[in-house]
Design brief:
about 160 residues; about 30% strand; globular; 5 strands
Length: about 160
């Protein structure tokens, strides 16, 4: 398989936040933001891998600012790292008021998710390598490798503790 640049699978999804998305405080429920994040990340993973990919983990999700009814949410996702069958996808969520064109977007959330490509038999399948081309893409790939190493070390430490 030919390595692919992050731009190949990059995707943006949008949502007009309405009353159906509100939590008890009157803001948009964090779960709605997470749903948009997972959908955008899944689309990017599917594009990069050329087929279905399933969410294996949400490595990190940071909510930075509230989202209000009437805000337009935009989730931009791209593959940061690709292994043999799995990929890390980074997602940035920004919002702006629906009725104020020209307003600078507000960064409201960021997340890193791990996806595994799935073949017709339901088993993991190989994915193309990532061909990071810009300094920002190289930085994102290196940071994804650090997160992966931390995930694997944490898993091993937990398993070791269970054996004792």
């Amino acid at each position: 398989m030919k390595p692919l640049p992050p731009s190949y699978g990059r995707v943006a999804l949008s949502l007009l936040a309405g009353q159906a998305h509100v939590n008890l405080l009157g803001n948009i429920h964090g779960g709605e933001v997470m749903r948009l994040v997972d959908s955008a990340a899944g689309a990017a993973a599917g594009r990069h891998s050329g087929g279905p990919a399933v969410t294996a983990a949400m490595d990190e999700m940071a909510f930075l600012a509230p989202v209000h009814v009437g805000d337009i949410l935009r989730a931009e996702a791209q593959v940061n790292w690709a292994g043999r069958t799995s990929m890390e996808v980074g997602v940035r969520v920004e919002t702006e008021p629906w009725n104020q064109a020209g307003t600078d977007p507000v960064h409201v959330a960021s997340a890193y998710l791990v996806f595994v490509a799935i073949g017709p038999d339901g088993e993991p399948r190989e994915v193309p390598a990532l061909d990071a081309q810009t300094p920002d893409e190289v930085r994102r790939m290196r940071e994804a490798e650090i997160r992966r190493a931390n995930r694997l070390a944490r898993k091993e430490e937990i398993l070791a503790a269970r054996r004792t």
